[in-house]
Amino acid sequence: MATKSTRASKPGFRCTECGRELAKWVGQCPNCRQWNTVEEAAPPAPALSGVAVGAPSSPARPIAEVDLDSARAVATGIGELDRVLGGGIVPGAVALLAGEPGVGKSTLLLEVAHRWAALGGQGPSLYVTGEESAGQVRLRAERTGGVHEDLYLAADGDLSSVLGHLDAVKPGLLIVDSAQTVQAPESDGTPGGVTQVRAVATALVAVAKERGLPVVLVGHVTKDGAVAGPRALEHIVDVVLQFEGDRHSSLRMLRGVKNRFGPADEVGCFEQRDEGIAEVPDPSGLFLNRQEAQVPGTAITVAVEGKRPLLAEVQGLMTQSQMAVPRRAVSGLDSARVSMILAVLEKRGRVRTSDQEVFAATVGGMRVTEPAADLAVALAMASAKRDVPLPANMIAVGEVGLAGDIRRVNAVGRRLAEAARLGFDRALVPPDAGKLPPGVRATVVHDLESALRALREK
């Protein structure tokens, strides 16, 4: 019979994709459902029965006496990035930028390194790449106008060499592209594996905290869009940013997922151009399709991304179906929510949709998932079915309930102020909308039927 110590020393197995520990080898990980990612892992070190008391590296102080100057954010020179970060990057902070291949992560961070070097006064910027050669990065910098004498490049995939570059250059900003391509010689596993990524991230975080050096890591994503590697990676770093975009659209959205030093729900807008990544400080016009004559099936709403209100155009199309099960195609909206709105529209609004093929989309590649767009979706569908356009100067904001009631949403005043700035002077709003800005004639609608009545009255 095996003793407890013998069982404890028996090696286990770990998934290299998600880090799940297993008692035996299996072909498919039961957690992330990936095949051939389970490898044998070394047994865990035995727990210490006690820890010796040691002298602290620095004495504890009252919180009021802690210096704030070393933790103030420093602007990167890119306004949209600083907006998401909460004013800039904090010395000693480690940020993780994740995104799909080809979305423009490297181009954005090369521009960040160039702006940082051009600002001066904070030390040079060091861009370490493990995926490209220094010549390839230089070619991209020439194309985007990102060459500067205080911007240093290093093509290296060894962690010890990266630390050596830090001692030689003494940068004020470090960018590592990417965390999955850097290898820690002292750790087991292949580059990009769970053990290696954790070791690299832990070492760079320790260096960042010790030297007060802001560090930005590029992270790969899985097929589902999540950050690749162990989940602990997102807990180790201070900031997690998601860079999103459609290959068929030039629009790019930088979304804050985690931020220990600022808001975690802010969004920055960029545009992919031939000369690189450009900021879009006023992106509302990208999501509208202004036409001289209004066409049926279009409605305007105002979505709030973080603290920023963005006008979005919702388009709907209905046509008689010749199939037993009519088709539903949705782009840029939540398909489940669109199906619910269609059911409420037929039951409460007396607009027959069950025998119609329905197509719903947003303009400009924007994705709108918040419930505040429900009323605009319902009006766009009703407008398409009745072939009656909505007024060109009207927006609709409100959540549609299953009973057909229009429910309140947050920041109605801020939404209407943005709409008024762009020339919209009529609005359908839910009850209890709060104080509304001047310049907008708001009509309170309590249910879907009253909203459709406002559509008929125009």
Give the overall pLDDT as a whole number: 87
Q: What's the gyration radius in Å?
A: 27 Å
Overall 3D geometry? globular
Q: Report the uncertain regions.
A: 1-8
By CATH, the architecture of the largest domain is named 3-Layer(aba) Sandwich
Number of helices: 11
Q: How many strand units?
A: 21
| CA-CA gap between termini | 84 Å
What is the helical fraction, as a range of percent? 25-40%
Structural class designation: alpha/beta
How do the strands of the widest beta sheet line up side by side? 6-5-7-8-4-9-10-11-12
The CATH topology of the largest domain is Rossmann fold
The CATH homologous superfamily of the largest domain = P-loop containing nucleotide triphosphate hydrolases
Share of β-strand residues: 15-25%
> Which oligomerization state do the chains in this entry correspond to?
single chain
Number of domains as seen in the coordinates: 3
Structural write-up:
With 458 residues, the protein is of the alpha/beta class. It folds into 3 domains: 10-41; 72-281, Rossmann fold (3-Layer(aba) Sandwich), CATH 3.40.50.300; 287-457, Ribosomal Protein S5, domain 2. It contains 11 helices and 21 strands. Strands 6-5-7-8-4-9-10-11-12 form a 9-stranded mixed sheet, sandwiched between helices. Helix 9 crosses helix 11 (448-457). The radius of gyration is 27 Å and the shape is globular. The termini are far apart. The model is unreliable at 1-8 (pLDDT under 50).
